[in-house]
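Researcher: We plan to redesign the surface later, but first we want a full-length starting point. Tokens attached.
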């Protein structure tokens, strides 16, 4: 993959200084570009692309006379003197700042980005709308060209610094907030935490490889990584209908959120509102596994997970019946008697039409007797079976339903089955 430095050439009569980065000094130079190049060469070969207006090019690309009548070295010669092997490309841009010019700038920057580029972006001499347009392009390129922003930097020159030392500030970590914002937005809308997990995992690798990062920062990063992994586990638990472990996984997530909140690192502060957004998605889930089953189906409605929602709603209903009858919900032979019992109840089937094994009939009779008072409350369960069957057969039945009716039907089922869940909860509490 190509490593490339993007920079903008300014118009000032820049004074020479030593740019410092990670405890090292650059060659004495007027230009931040040569300094960044020197400091990042240790990370591998680096190409340089310098964007310049015609005014900036006339002022600082070639040597020129300043107001004192002194010749000032241009960027082209500075690179040739300091790093003769540097591969530098000059790209013309307009000095206009209207909407059309901004779109042209967008296109120009994007055209210089290759698939998979690892970009070092110097924003020292960006002005007016250029920083905003540049960051939008870079974020866009991460998606459409699989580019990666390795560093986001600027040189902090101070004329009053007697030793002519100017630090290079690395603000790459600020991009983490942008990534988190995008990831949390995806999660809030879809329930999918894979994006957050991916960039946090990448960030963790970078942090632990960097020997200059403090132990406290590494502990914080590890906590964040643990949080996003758990968030992804919870999301996958919904997607794959892991109804019996959802409560435990959500509780683990809540604990992870509190751990991250307690971290002392400054990088956590801007994430706290985002953590609150994540936490709010699960605030209604408690330790009650019966009502959590209904809440899981509601969660699926909110995130348009239709097939998992129908499955979770029905199976959580069966689980609630198991708890009310003091049956272990994982005891397969007993659990599988509940669905036919509901079908018999809904259709008023005589025993001769039962499609259960002879040895199962005593338990089916017991379940029927228990469920008889709740026949009306269970009607939505029966109708959902048809929707579930339609989905599981991929709409290949002759009476296949239209796609747009499934979500409203699931939403209706969740609402109408709530009284049944509440009754099962009441009965289980009476057993204690």
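Model: Full-length starting sequence:
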């Amino acid at each position: 993959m190509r490593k490339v430095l993007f920079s903008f050439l300014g118009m000032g009569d820049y004074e020479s200084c030593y740019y410092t980065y990670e405890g090292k000094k650059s060659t004495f130079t007027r230009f931040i570009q040569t300094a960044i190049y020197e400091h990042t060469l240790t990370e591998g070969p680096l190409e340089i692309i310098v964007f310049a207006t015609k005014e900036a090019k006339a002022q600082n690309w070639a040597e020129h006379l300043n107001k004192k009548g002194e010749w000032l070295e241009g960027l082209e010669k500075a690179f040739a003197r300091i790093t003769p092997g540097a591969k530098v490309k000059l790209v013309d841009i307009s000095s206009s700042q209207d909407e059309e010019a901004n779109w042209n700038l967008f296109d120009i920057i994007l055209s210089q980005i290759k698939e998979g580029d690892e970009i070092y972006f110097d924003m020292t001499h960006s002005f007016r709308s250029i920083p905003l347009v540049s960051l939008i392009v870079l974020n866009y390129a991460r998606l459409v060209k699989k580019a990666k922003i390795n560093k986001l930097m600027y040189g902090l020159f101070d004329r009053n610094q007697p030793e002519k030392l100017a630090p290079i500030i690395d603000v790459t970590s600020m991009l983490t907030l942008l990534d988190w914002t995008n990831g949390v937005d995806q999660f809030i809308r879809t329930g999918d935490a894979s994006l957050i997990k991916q960039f946090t995992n990448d960030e963790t690798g970078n942090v632990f490889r960097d020997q200059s990062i403090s132990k406290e920062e590494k502990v914080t990063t590890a906590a964040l990584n643990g949080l996003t992994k758990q968030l992804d586990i919870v999301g996958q638990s919904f997607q794959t209908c892991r109804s019996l472990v959802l409560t435990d996984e959500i509780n683990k997530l809540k604990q992870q959120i509190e751990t991250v909140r307690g971290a002392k690192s400054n990088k956590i502060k801007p994430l706290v509102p985002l953590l609150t957004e994540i936490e709010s998605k699960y605030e209604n889930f408690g330790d009650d596994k019966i009502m959590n089953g209904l809440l899981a189906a509601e969660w699926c409605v909110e995130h348009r997970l239709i097939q998992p929602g129908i499955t979770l709603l029905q199976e959580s209903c069966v689980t609630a019946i198991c708890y009310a009858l003091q049956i272990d919900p994982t005891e397969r032979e007993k659990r599988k008697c509940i669905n036919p019992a509901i079908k018999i109840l809904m259709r008023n089937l005589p025993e001769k039409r039962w499609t259960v094994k002879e040895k199962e009939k005593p338990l089916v009779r017991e379940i029927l007797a228990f469920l008889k008072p709740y026949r009306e409350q269970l009607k939505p369960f029966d109708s959902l079976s048809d929707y579930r069957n339609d989905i599981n057969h991929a709409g290949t039945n002759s009476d296949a339903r239209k796609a747009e009716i499934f979500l409203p039907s699931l939403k209706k089922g969740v609402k109408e089955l709530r009284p049944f869940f509440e009754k099962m909860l009441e009965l289980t509490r009476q057993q204690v």
